[in-house]
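Checked the freezer inventory, then went back to the computational side. Two predictions to log before the end of the day. The first one is the construct we discussed on Monday; recording sequence and tokens without edits.
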Amino acid sequence: MRNGIFGPNQICQEFYYPLNHPTMPGWFKGMEQIIRERSLWPEKGILAQCPGFKCPPGRTDCCCRRLLFYHPDFMAQKSELEEFITARGHVCDFYPKFHCELNFIEQYWGAVKHLYRSTAKTADMDAMEQNVLECLDEVPLLQIRRYVTRRRKHKSST
């Protein structure tokens, strides 16, 4: 993680201990220490995260994870992967995990499985592998492009 910037005076906060720290040189400070340095640590303390990652609706201070998540510098921070991709002139498009209606890869795989179910039944592993490869090639390129186009249209409307 990169250093954070917080408060009305835009104070720079280092997230790693300095290399000359007596016990933890170069180590990540952790959520509690970061929150303490921002003078936001509650007297009674808080959990690192809510049980099962299920924070109470509307709460922004129920756990360390949620408290930091809603700070502008954390919200604006792009992942290293996203920065790497965009720095090279590409679009980084994250799909919702396991969302079969939006993720074109899931749509494509569903079409392949549908085709595979119609192939002749066989117990021969080589024949099965050949059937899978043929089904992968059999999904029309136009259908694949429709999935991608549908995903882009959905994303731009949200």
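The second is the one RB wanted added to the comparison set:
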Amino acid sequence: MKQVNHGLGFSQSLERGLAVLSAFSPDRPALGISELARKLGLTRSTTHRYVATLASLRYLEQDGETRKYRLGPRVLDLGFSMLGSLELREIAGPHLRQLTETTGQTSNLAIRDDTDVILIDRVRGRPGRYHHLEFTLHVGSRLPAYCSATGKALLAFLPRQDLDRLLDRTDLVQRGPRTHTDKRSLLAELEQVRRTGIATNDEELESALRSIAAPVRSRSGEVIAAVNVAIPWSPVAISDLVTQLGPAIQATAKQIAAKVI
């Protein structure tokens, strides 16, 4: 591997792990430790350490007979998720821009990854309407699903058994002044989201930040993403904000859904 000085914050271990995955190709789908070591310019012991880690995480799998490795199912999952996210982002972009133009607020598109949501597109609102948290968020940012509007829009439509298992792995810590730290109260709110098709975050993620979200469904009816607008705190009640902004958010979610396969 060619050594490049990338500066502070660069992870050589991550670079080497990704280099191992990138070494596999359609022409060379299976590689042994010695082949990988030569290709990457690493020692056998170092290569084996990275390969063993990736295999334990199911990014690589080993053939029992040849002892060679090939890409595992988690790499395929990553690839399909990325392709789906890129297509969804391309579809959603114009509609998010229209939503921000209509409301003046920052709009986001998010998908769920286990107990978190990931922002995959983001259109900032008018200057002066930002909450300070918004300056730290970007495409790729993660937020806890249980205390974000997009997260609740995605959690609410999970099968109950899947939802229970996910919440059992979620630490319901206090993030803002109104965070649900009790599973029963959170489940009650998720039931309301299922009934209304609207999810809210009323200072649950952080103080003085509110958000309203709606689910985006595929043609099969599965909820695959959520659209939201982020609203810096104001004296207006969250119920009034839902009345004002909810229809535009739901309309945006339906417009995106109409173009999703």
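For RB: The first strand starts at residue 60 and ends at 62. The chain has a mean pLDDT of 88. Let me know if you want it refolded.
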